[in-house]
Amino acid sequence: xxxxxxxxxxxxxxxxxxxxxxxxxxxxxxxxxxxxxxxxxxxxxxxxxxxxxxxxxxxxxxxxxxxxxxxxxxxxxxxxxxxxxxxxxxxxxxxxxxxxxxxxxxxxxxxxxxxxxxxxxxxxxxxxxxxxxxxxxxxxxxxxxxxxxxxxxxxxxxxxxxxxxxxxxxxxxxxxxxxxxxxxxxxxxxxxxxxxxxxxxxxxxxxxxxxxxxxxxxxxxxxxxxxxxxxxxxxxxxxxxxxxxxxxxxxxxxxxxxx
Amino acid sequence: xxxxxxxxxxxxxxxxxxxxxxxxxxxxxxxxxxxxxxxxxxxxxxxxxxxxxxxxxxxxxxxxxxxxxxxxxxxxxxxxxxxxxxxxxxxxxxxxxxxxxxxxxxxxxxxxxxxxxxxxxxxxxxxxxxxxxxxxxxxxxxxxxxxxxxxxxxxxxxxxxxxxxxxxxxxxxxxxxxxxxxxxxxxxxxxxxxxxxxxxxxxxxxxxxxxxxxxxxxxxxxxxxxxxxxxxxxxxxxxxxxxxxxxxxxxxxxxxxxxxxxxxxxxxxxxxxxxxxxxxxxxxxxxxxxxxxxxxxxxxxxxxxxxxxxxxxxxxxxxxxxxxxxxxxxxxxxxxxxxxxxxxxxxxxxxxxxxxxxxxxxxxxxxxxxxxxxxxxxxxxxxxxxxxxxxxxxxxxxxxxxxxxxxxxxxxxx
Amino acid sequence: xxxxxxxxxxxxxxxxxxxxxxxxxxxxxxxxxxxxxxxxxxxxxxxxxxxxxxxxxxxxxxxxxxxxxxxxxxxxxxxxxxxxxxxxxxxxxxxxxxxxxxxxxxxxxxxxxxxxxxxxxxxxxxxxxxxxxxxxxxxxxxxxxxxxxxxxxxxxxxxxxxxxxxxxxxxxxxxxxxxxxxxxxxxxxxxxxxxxxxxxxxxxxxxxxxxxxxxxxxxxxxxxxxxxxxxxxxxxxxxxxxxxxxxxxxxxxxxxxxxxxxxxxxxxxxxxxxxxxxxxxxxxxxxxxxxxxxxxxxxxxxxxxxxxxxxxxxxxxxxxxxxxxxxxxxxxxxxxxxxxxxxxxxxxxxxxxxxxxxxxxxxxxxxxxxxxxxxxxxxxxxxxxxxxxxxxx
Lengths: 259, 414, 393
What we know:
By secondary structure, chain A is an alpha/beta fold. Chain A has helices at 3-15, 111-116, 124-134, 172-182, 207-214, and strands spanning 18-22, 47-55, 58-67, 75-77, 102-109, 121-122, 142-146, 160-161, 164-165, 169-170, 186-189, 218-221, 234-238, 248-250, 253-258. By secondary structure, chain B is an alpha/beta fold.
C-alpha cells in the first residue's frame, strides 16, 4: 500500500469521513473490578493521588501518581494471563507483535437476549444464525459480544448475587469453535470478564480464557458503545501498555467505522 | 585462653546443612524479667523493696519477708566461681550436639548463688563477672565471663553461640547511598566481616562518597532497590544463601504531621521505602536466614532494623514518619518470632535525630552516623536485641518508662 | 544448727508390713496406672485382703499425670476414707509412712496401702527433666540440660574440694552396693563391679562418671500400714516405727549443698528412737549419687561433717560387713523406678526386718534405718526424711 493511502486514511479520520468511536470506560476509582474469593490475591482498583496542582508542591504544573491492576477497567488480556497460554511464544503484552494490535471486528448483538436473561450463554447455533445474515466471520477478526451491559448503572453492572456474578458469556463449545473453525483474533465483551459470570461451573471452567489464551488469542473486557458499531466492517485499535512480562493492561480501545 | 577464631573454610556444597535446634526457651513470666535485661545488655536481678534481699532464681514472693515488691534492678555482676562441671551427656537435642558443655555455680557478691554457662577462660575458685545473654531460644541465660578481659574472648564457643559477632560473617547493607549506610559498611569491614555487600538502587543517580564506598575493604556493591520486589527477590536469589547479617539502612526522612502533610504522596514513599521495603527484605531473605541459623562459624545471625525512637512515641514534627517507623517496629517484633526457630536475632537500634540533611533544622543533641554504626556492631557482638543509641533515644526511653502520656504532650508541644 | 528435741508422740500400736516389689524393667510401654495396679494386685494377693478392704491410699508417682491419687481411686476401684498424694521423690516412702501411721493411730484409717511407682517410656526421662520444677525450667535446664547428673556433679565437686573425698571413696560405696545386689533376681544391673571399672568408667558430668548414676526404669514398690493388733490377728510379719523425721529446704543459705535436713533434727530423731547410731544393724540411704549417701552418714550422726570419706574408708559396707548399707544394692544397682526409688529403701528395710528379703539377709537384723532425700528444685535436694524401724516382737 502506498504512502498516499495512509495519508488519505489520516485525513479521513481528521475530517470525520472515518469515525472514531471510543469503546473505553473512563478509568476512575468507582469502576468495579473483578472480585475473587478472599483467599486469593485481588485485582487493584484504580486510584489517583495528586502530586501537585499549580501549588506549593509544584507551582506551574498539575500531575498525579496512579495505581491500578493490569485487569482494571477497559483492559486487554494477553495469552500469558492464563495457565493454558503460559508457555506460548510472544505471549506477554511487551512481546506480542505490534501488528496484532490492529484487527477487524465482528459484533454479535445479543442485547435483547441479555436484557431478558443475565446468564445468557452465546452458542454456536446463535453465531451460525448471525453468519446466515451477515456472512461468515473472517479469520483474524475480533469477535465482540454486544449485550448493552455497559449501559447499566455501576451498581448493577457487576451482576453480583450471593452465588457469584450473573453476566452473559460464551459456551465452551462456542469458544472452541471460534478458535478452531473461525481462527478468530480474540474475544471481547462489555462485562467484567470475557467469560460468563457463572463460568466457574463450566467444563472447562472459564472457557473463553482457557481456549482463547491457550491458542495464543487475546481478550478485551469492559468495552462500551458496541451498539454504535456495525455487525462487520469496524477496525479496532487496541494496543496495551508495554509492561515487562505483563499479563494485560488497561488501554484505549478505538473502533474506526465508515461515517 | 580462648583460641582465636579461624577463618571458616568454604562450605562443602555436597554436605547437608545442619538444621537449627534451640535450647528450651520456656520461662515463667517473672523469669522473663531477665530476658528484658538481656535484650538491652543489662545485668539485673530482683531486689526486695521491703527488706533488700536479692533472691535467685526469679520468684513471686521474697523468701525472707514474703513481700511481693520484687522489681528487677541493675546489680553488681561480680562474684566467684565456686564449683564447675563439664557436662558430657544430655537428653536435650540442642545440647547433645554441642557436648562437652561447661557450667558452674557462682556466688555473687550481691548475695545469691547462680548456676551459669562458663566462658572457657573462667577458672574454678577465681573471680568472674556475670552477664545476661539471650541464648538461641531467645530467653535469657547467665554467662560467667573472666573478671578481666582475656585475649580472643569473643572466640569462645559459648559466647559466639549467644551473640551475632560480625567477624567472618557476610553482611548486607541494604542501602549504601546514605551516610548511615556508608558508615555501616566501614564499621562492618573493620569488625572483620568477610564480605560487606552494599545495595545501591537507581545506579544512574550519582550520590556523595560513591568512590570512597567502593574503596572500603571487602565491600561489594550490588543492585538492590527495597521499593522493587523484583530487585529484592533477585538479590536474595543470587546472594541470600551467603548473607549472615542484614542491616536495613534504607531511609526516608521527611518532616510533616499527618494532617499537615496535605496529601499522600510522601506517605506512600515513606511506607514503601520503610515498611514495605522492610517486608520485601524479610520475605526475600528471611527463609534462608532462618534455615542457616546453625550453619557453622559464619551461620546466619541477625536482621538489624534502624528505627527512629519515635516509633515508640510519635513526634508530630515528623509525625507521618513516626507512624511509618511504628509500623516497622511492629513488623520487627513479628519477624523476631518468625526468625526465632532458626536462632536468628532481630536487633532493633533506636535513635533520635541524626546529623544528616533531613534533620538539619533540628537542634542538638544529634547522633552522627558513625556512632550509630559503632553501636550496632557492638550490640551484635554482645547479642543484644534492643538498643537505644544517643542522648535523645535514651532520654525518650526513660520518659516512656515513667509517664508515656507526659511524653506524648512534651513531644507534641514542639 | 541442730535444734533442741521436742516431745514427739510415739508410733505405738502402728506397724508397717506387706513389702511389695513389682520387678523393674528398663523401658515399659505401660502407663503408671498399670504399674500402680500391679503393686496393689500383689499387695492384695499376698495379704489375703480384698482391694475394697483398703480404706487408705497414699500414692507417689512422677508419670501418673494428668492424674493424681484421686483419679486412681476410680481407675482402680478403691473407695478410701483417707487419701494422700506425696510428690517428694526420694523422701516419699518415709513421708508416706509418717502420714499413714498417724492416720491409723488416730483412727482415720485402718488399712493404708502406700505405693511408689512410675513407668518409663523412651522419652519419659527427658520429658520429666524438662518440666521438673519452675526453678529447674528457669534456672537449670537451659544450662546444658545435663539433668540431675549436672546438678549433683557440682555438689560432688564442691564436697571433694572441701572435704578431700576422692573418687575411690565414692567407688567403694558403689562396689559394695553392687555386691549386695548380686543375689537380687530383678536387679537391672547384674555384673559385679570392681573399683578399677568404676574409676575407668566414662565421664557423664565431671566428676560424676557412669557408675555414679542410677538407671531410670519402670517399676513399683509398696507396703501396708495398719494397727499392730490387726497385723497379729492376720498373721502378718511386721515392723514397728521407733522414730521418724522430715525437713524440707534446710540450710537455704549454704552456697552449695553440703548437708541436708537430717542435721537439724538428728538429736530428736535418736531421742525419740531411744537408741544410738551404733545400735543400727543396717542402713538404707537414698543413693541417687554416692555423695548424698555420704552426707546422710554425716547428718544422721554416724560421723561428723566432712568425716564421710574416712567413715567409708574404715568400714565394710556389704551385708556381711561392719556397716551393711543399701542391702539390696540401692538404686545404683536395681535401677530408679521414679518415685519407686523413694520407697525402695523402706520396703527393703521391712524385708530385712521380717526375713522377706529377695536377695541376701543381713544376719540378725533387728533395727534398721531408712533415709530419704530428693527433689532437686534448683541446685539442691529440698526434701529429706528418715525413720528407724524395728522388728515387731
